[in-house]
Design goal:
eight-stranded parallel sheet, 20% strand, ornithine cyclodeaminase, domain 1, single chain, 2 domains, binds nicotinamide-adenine-dinucleotide
């Protein structure tokens, strides 16, 4: 099984994980002893399935929330534990490859607040960062959008780019049906890899097992967002292409150890000082694109602050009565 757990607001979530191990699968509230536990009423928590999350947060709102999360780099009163599994063979079983649950708690007192479908939260926050990176790093006159890899997260990147008024676009995928479905949905075109890479803003969201961007594809003014390489051993661009770009990332530690930048870092061809954090550009403390000719590359590895941003939006939509969710008492 390939499984990953991401925790945000580490104090609370990490303490809970230790409790689970120490008490054979049960997590006591941290402010009471086990003997006192029965006197503490656990709250009812809403459960947001895939469609409820999507109904609660539009691509436009996801973009704004994720942008704000990068500026503040904080969780804003929430702590989350993200349980996400990835079973590539599920495609043949007719099941989603990625599944899981986001458990949301109060960062003030640890109260459980909600359970949410991981796929929906991840798709929104991943798609949104592609739009934020394009808005911040692409040329001001950039319009056309190339998508390389039109699976789940490629689709959401394209939807968010369209919501940010990029397009028309070119969709390329090794599976022509995937490219055709996305192009049909957005009124874009199916094209070759080269045609997708000829667009102003190119977003790559393949599994990252083979390069789809080569140094010979680069031309002045291009913006690349690399979303597919989010773990060790993955890369979507050859090293010569990476080092020819002005480099940005969501978070250096992740990007240098399990991101698009990692092979170039390991080869000694990219150093910390060569890479700017997107948050620093958004806060205005570091420059972004400095000329129309520069080629910019953003390495997205996926941050918990993005998930937190979407969780906030879902809870606020629920509180405002925009979306309903069944409740369970834990
Ligand atoms: N950066 C992040 O925050 C983040 C978040 C979620 C997923 N991811 C990563 O994004 C990648 C894609 O995830 P997904 O859930 O969309 O997967 P998916 O399987 O739904 O989609 C991948 C698509 O890429 C296509 N593809 C494969 N090889 C290709 C190639 N050489 N050229 C063109 N198309 C190709 C496949 O046909 C498929 O349609 C994975 O590596 C995943 O781990 C990153």
């Amino acid at each position: 099984m390939a499984a990953a757990m991401a925790a945000a607001s580490a104090g609370v979530a990490a303490a809970c994980a230790i409790s689970i191990r120490g008490r054979a699968g049960w997590c006591w509230p941290l402010w009471v002893t086990p003997g006192e536990y029965r006197r503490v009423a656990m709250p009812e928590v809403p459960v947001f399935d895939h469609d409820a999350v999507m109904a609660a947060v539009s691509p436009e709102e996801a973009i704004e929330r994720v942008r704000d999360a990068f500026v503040r780099h904080a969780g804003g009163g929430l702590a989350i534990l993200k349980w996400v599994t990835s079973f590539p063979a599920n495609r043949e079983r007719g099941l989603p490859v990625v599944m899981g649950v986001v458990a949301v708690s109060s960062a003030d007192d640890g109260r459980p607040l909600a359970l949410m479908d991981t796929r929906a939260v991840t798709a929104l926050r991943t798609g949104a960062v592609a739009a934020v990176a394009a808005q911040e790093l692409a040329r001001e006159d950039a319009r056309t959008a190339g998508i390389v890899g039109c699976g789940l997260h490629g689709r959401w990147a394209a939807r968010c780019l369209a919501a940010a008024e990029y397009g028309p676009g070119v969709c390329y995928d090794a599976d022509p049906d995937a490219a055709g479905a996305l192009a049909g949905e957005l009124g874009w075109e199916v094209g070759t890899r080269e045609e997708a890479l000829a667009c102003d803003v190119v977003t790559c969201v393949t599994p990252g097992f083979e390069p789809v961007v080569f140094a010979s594809d680069l031309r002045p003014g291009l913006h690349l967002s690399m979303l597919g390489a989010d773990g060790p051993g993955k890369a979507e661009a050859e090293i010569d292409a990476v080092v020819a770009c002005k480099l940005f990332c969501d978070e250096w530690e992740q990007a240098s150890h399990g991101g698009e930048l990692t092979p170039a870092v390991e080869a000694g061809r990219v150093r910390r000082e060569d890479v700017t954090d997107l948050g620093a550009v958004l806060r205005g403390t570091a420059p972004g694109r400095e000329s129309d000719e520069e080629i910019t590359l953003f390495d997205s590895t996926g941050l918990a602050i993005q998930d937190l941003a979407i969780c906030h939006a879902v809870l606020e939509a629920h509180a405002a009565g925009i979306v309903k969710a069944p409740a369970v008492r834990l």
